[in-house]
Fold these 2 entries.
Entry 1:
Amino acid sequence: MSGASNASDRLWMYATMVKSRHFEALIKPAYFEGKSPVFNMAKGPLPGEMHLSDGQEPCAVGVCAHLRPGDTVTATHRPHHVAIAKGVDLGAMAAEIFGKASGLSGGRGGHMHLFDARVNFACSGIIAQGLGPAVGAALASKLRGDDTVAIAFLGEGAANQGAFHEALNLASVWKVPAVFVIEDNAYGISVSKRDCTAVERNADRAAAYAMPGHFVAGNDADAVHAIAGAAIARARRGEGPSLIEIETCRLEGHFMGDAEGYRPEGEVQRLKASDPIPAYRARLLTDGFEAADLDRAETDARAAVDAAFAFARAAAYPDPEEAFAHVFA
Amino acid sequence: MSSPDTATAVRPARRLTIARAIAEAIGQEMERDPDVLVMGEDIAKLGGVFGTTTGLLDRFGPERVRDTPISETAFIGAAVGLAAAGMRPVVELMFVDFFGVCMDAIYNLAAKQSYFSGGQVTCPMVLMTSVGGGYGDAGQHSQALYATFGHLPGLKVVIPSNAHDAKGLMLAAIRDPNPVIFMYHKALQGMGWLGTVQRSITDAPEGDYVVPLGKAKCVREGEDITVVSLGLSVHQALDAAGRLANEDVSVEVIDLISIAPLDRETVRASVRRTGRLLVVDDDYLSYGVGAEIIASVCEASIPLLVPPQRIAFPDIPVPFTPVMEHFVLPNADKVTAAVRQMMRISN
Ligand SMILES: Cc1ncc(C[n+]2csc(CCOP(=O)(O)OP(=O)(O)O)c2C)c(N)n1
């Protein structure tokens, strides 16, 4: 599939994947600060559930490479890679996860409720909850006659929820510029796709809603880029919604602290051996990219994340009374 | 023919977490009644995110212990159908905050089955779920929502504060011919990663016993003030009562255990003696359990020495950052301060 995307997109996708991975690499030790030796979710500078997206970066970058700030993205409880690819403010996002006043919502939402109106990004913690709002954003763009699109990311587990089927039907009936992107990491918490989904491929479900359905194999940023590019262009032309299912993997547990007893022996090692980020770097080198350019992109990406975390750590906590602000507009 | 030795030997107390107590009750009832089955997300292989079904898959197999897709409308609706067919489903939907996606199956189907059928068809199902915050999981994973469900006719709603009651309540709930929402508080679950109030880990008989649905308990006797509580707030009330005893304030603590049906008489009897009423509840303040308890006392014309008060979660979404969340959550300090104020003791 290489060649389908241009060089600058490919370099951006690589750098953005590295940025996302580094973001999570910094979360890991920070999350366990104060939580060891006895793991208690409430303790430390990063309390609460923490869902990492290591391994799923190609889904985010391959789609978001085609997006502009005016396009809408709704993401899930596993939002970091998508948020970063959509251009959510990195410092404010890190500060939000640390519960600081300078966070995206001043510490009210935390990791599962990142909102950045500047780039039309939102996410939430109820499964399949982002699909309806994406249909609404897409309808707004159709009614206003602009060429923005709305993307809803969801997990393969979420495709079994009523909201998924209702939203796809509605998007199709209204012929809105929406693209539904399923990240198929094979598990909904401990339940494997095999054990809970009647079809082998969720992409096939698109047929029930008279929209194109695409399956992207191989957890490959270039392949995602090509398919997403076509679907998004189609939406911008006013030809209606599409469904894309991307084969990906979750290199970590469902949340941090997950013992992962439901995984077959050796699965994680096997997945790590096919980590999409080093594989993509190798491909870019084969395709003639200069190692020095990739190194520089990596260094810059890491530096941006380091700066965001330094900002977040140094930032002040909100005044507790601020809890009462913004309940109503 | 027991020897004096064995008769006098003290059996070491068997201490269970609420999670273990729930799993034991379900397992015991599955042994006794082949119509009982369990289903929900991550309840089979994982044994429940909060440990409520640990070990059941191995004992009863995948026919009776079913991991479901993330299809709440379907599997909770299916539970209503199973119940109508004479089975006794125990269903888990892991956080009460998620109930919105399938509310129709709960409050229009399950709750109205008996009524709409004129009593022809019952709905013996248990829907268990976790409630409560305090661990930085933000507004879609930390709500209590007791009153939301207590408000809906046709549903029974229970919330144990310790393992003994959890086991007996679960056995009663499964045998009950009505839909029972069985709420367990995350802070009492005995899952290490959530932190645990030690007092919730109690002895519980190995055999069969029920804690009746709809009956409150006085868990500490006192003379001066009645503190009505449920779930986690029982422990906050008990902690406060312990401290206040040193100040010669005698606090009576009522554990509601069940909010639907609500045992108004136990509360009234206590307040008749003490003349003071404080309700502690980690659900949203307005239209809540506190309001209902206070109304129940006022309606009975019970003379009060001071106006009744309530401590609850304010009418805001649960904030993520701990500096805000712990500022607004009820705790033993707030209970202590309220009691002192009601006893006119300055701090
Ligand atoms: C309506 C609802 N039901 C259940 C949950 C609990 N839950 C959180 S994540 C999850 C699994 C989601 O799986 P999937 O959609 O495949 O996304 P992934 O976690 O794999 O990214 C479940 C069941 C929830 N958050 N919302």
Entry 2:
Amino acid sequence: MLFVLPTLVIFGVFKFLPIAGAGAMSFTRYSLNGDFSWLGTDNYSRLFDDEHFWQSLGVTVSYVLLFVPLIIVVSLVGALLLNKVVRFSGTFRAVLFLPYLSSFVMAGIVWSWIFASDGPLNAALGGLGLGTVPFLSGDQLLVLASLALVAVWKGFGYSMLVFLAGLKAQPAEVHEAARLDGAGTWQAFRYVTLPLLKPVLFFVLVIETITGFQVFDTVYVMTGGGPNLASHSLIYFLYDEAFKFLDFGYASAVGMVLFAIVLVLSLVQRRLVEGKESK
Amino acid sequence: MTTTTATPGVRSPRRTRRRGWLPTVALLVISLFTVAPLLAVLVLALSPENAPTLPHAIPDSLTLDNITSIFAVGEFPLWLFNSFVYSAVSVVIILLTASMAAYALVRKRFPGRNALLWAIVATLMVPMQATLIPTFILVARIHGTNTLWGLIMPTLANAQAVFLIRQFIRDLPDELFDAARIDGAGEWRTFARIVLPLIRPVLATLAIFVFLWHWNDLLWPMIVGQTDHARTLTVGLATLHTETVSTAGIMSAAFVSFLPCLVIFIVLQRHIVAGITSSGVKG
């Protein structure tokens, strides 16, 4: 019993208590000195009437829709290539994984420089006669796509390794059989590799969707939520409400919305994985 | 397994060989995408002041001046120190408490065991941002803001660590523990002499990931450490970026922040790959 005691205390105080607190606080008006008054569901009705909330949710969903397909494609292509190439595969794997070691803050700083109006990307585009592209100050789609690209650069190494493990686990005989049946590269991928990869694909899909919904660091470093709230994501909204306007109860309600989104995604994944795995 | 592809007669050897180059070329292109920004950081950090540099020119000489002078900027050395304490202390305490709990959860029967395990695993579904505010208020109420212990304590509840170590201990053979008991080893001896050495692979993997997560963390350290001296390096980096620091300065700071992660990766690469591929570790 002595063995679980430290964990029990740490989890009790810093995990279970805040989780209960988060739920409870979302029904109150709460100030930092501990004063609070019960509001019932007022925070939630206010939230659902708040156009800034819907704006942030819209930004976040758009971002997820840009980020998730992009990171899945890049990491899957990376894994398929790594699985094919024999020479220097260890070196390639390490090189593709490198950005994962950086922080979103560092990634944001480097890519702010790359995306700058006088940065290398615009210099290259100018050289091609394409003019200057306002990556971080243009319209919403462009800004969110730029932010998504940074997150793909930083994060795809992880999903790539998960995919690679999935590919290595596929029985070689099946691929052999497909080739003997005359399947081309694309057919083999479409009808053999991809179906076998489905559970892994689903895992990565859910994990990266959750990551996408939590986007904050790059927004904070690169755009500050702008221009004109074009990149004002859900967590940025939560952060502002809590630490700029000190409206802790209201911000907790935003946290509960994020929790609900993540919970649904986790439960869907759990259901699908449990159906497929024996362990 | 990819080497045994050529079935004689089906395709001419020449064509197979040419196709074999395509993936390598494609990998080189993606590698350029991942490495170029990192190289840019390095070159910009090492470019002499006022010398023509990226993106317009490649500097003809490199210097460490920017990196040494970034250490003179404000509280930079303190940020570095805070980051090391935050990451290293967390690694040690998380690994120790999580392995102790995992050992008890596998080998001991006590009331509420399953409920506790279930409760710990369930917290994995609660995103950190959802509990950010109550955690902050809790830490503020016990006067932990702008202190290292206030920064570290709440992050010690790491469900992933407990869960992964538990999976690992569960797969150890029963005979091992029976033998220890017959030899008269007590719980602590069994834990320290048998369990800990055997679970070293999973501990190494977790150590790397916990270090990376903490070292690169922004939101929590930013909220707890609001004064200049209480920042971690990642928070300091974000601050430097919004203040007017030269490109060389910010890239030097970024490079310094990246270096420990790079060293850890080079030394312990296989553990990272093993960690991701076997268990799906994600912060």
